[in-house]
Amino acid sequence: MTDDEMSEARVDGDLDIAPVRPPRLFEPRFSAAGALVGLFFAALSLQPSLLPRAPYVQGIASGVTFMVGYGIGAVGQALWTYLRIPRLRGRARTVVVGVLLALILWGTLFSAWRQVGWQNEIRSSFGMQPVSWTAWPVILAVGVGVAALLLVVSRAVRLLFRTVGRWLGSWMPRRAAIALGATAIVLLAWGLVTGVVVNGFFAVSNAIFSTRDGATTAGVVPTRSQLRSGGPGSLVRWDELGRQGRSFVATAPTVQEINTASGGGAKEPIRVYVGLKSAPTLQARADLLLAELKRTGAFDRKTLVVATTTGTGFLDPNGVDPVDFVTNGDDAIAGVQYSYLPSWISLLADQEAVKETSRVVFRTVHAYWTTLPEASRPQLFLYGLSLGSFGVESILSSPDILNEPIDGAFLTGPPFVNTMHEEIEAARDPGSPPWWPVYGEGRTVRFQVERDGITPTTTGPWGPTRVVYLQHGSDPVVNFSPSLTWTAPDWLQDGQRPPDVSARMGWFPLVTMWQVALDLPSAGNVPYGYGHMYSKRANLEGWVATLDPSGWTPAMTDELGALLDARKTGGD
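Request: output the structure for the sequence above.
Response:
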């Protein structure tokens, strides 16, 4: 007996459907309506997204999307029957069902036939190697496996619901038992997922990655410079910096490298860093950072950058090294670790931690900086990549800088949690696209994209505070939003699509949100210039625009860009 036949079962009384045995957990019995809608959703999941997908990722996307459609179809059929809405019968039913089945099967087969070609179009535009038809066995195996697993889980939940309903129904009216049982199960599931499961996942991840934090990246050796944290005379021990902190202080450009680029007269850049193990509290870490800045003479330099790290404490060499070259080494860059977790987990778990760390560290450094003579103190800038840019926005939106504004900020790959970025993009000047917006005629904030540079269509001067956002149209970290579930984004509208987003990508309710969500873990596995991979040249151009060095020319950017491209760093 099919699920559709079950839904047409005898109606007992005026309202209640007569009890029919539901499928067992592993019984191969399915809803015909659910399968049809599921196939339609699976066909949509094969459409291009922001990034090229590995076959196993496509399999996960198709499996989950099929089950979403299956659930919608099965529940819709059950509600139709429960409400006793008249059905088509006889020849009319045969014709309608036949047409729908033919259309859905054609759409599924067409999408399956074109999927590899669509993926290779994106891979070609990204400069990646193509995939062949051999991807399909992986897609099918993973997709079927994921769908089967989700089906078993959903049937287990239904079995639990029926069991609780029967137990409650033994001492209260059936409808009240169903309502109370459903409410209890939903609350229990929500509590388990948001509490036990999520917190357990974060706790286990934190334990795993805190162990990794004690390791040192291959090729990184302890610094011998007194101008680096962890070096001779430092208030922070080398083994307390964390893996990313050790890389940050040890791989800065040398005076010789900077002189090669500038022609001479370079200073040794100052690098200050405080790890999670360096002090027991956030304020203590901020105070330690300030003490290190004073010890190294950072406030005597021309430029001071307070950088907010990403999850593990990472500061991208592509994002910070250009500062050392543009300033000819007359700079200091400082950062504080706030987590052991990688960015994709930290984005979910550490939003409050990064906000609080950014504000406390900035407030501590800024309070001392404001006491220095304005004519001799360094220019003060902020920097953040990904979740680090969320921390920078937390500073820019705080009252700490109202009386003594900073000189600028450079934010790269701002994630979807950045409310200020979202508000600026929504309030962009008419005629500017969402991926390269103009805001307030560019008086304070300007946007940069990889190949087109800073937004050019401005009418007024820029300054005195310069804020630059560097973003890619194909970056899911930037473009993901829960609202993709029910609303088509501006960046997929006609005339608004970024040049690095496939012309074949469309928007579909639920499906597009899930596709872009699955793009998030792959955002760092594409070539530089796409996704969440921001190149040395783009970072250099962003810093030149932010720092506005006197006498700088485009030819100097070209020359330095070529040197940076040839230089091997931790960002390669």
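The CA atoms of residues 94 and 331 lie 76 Å apart.
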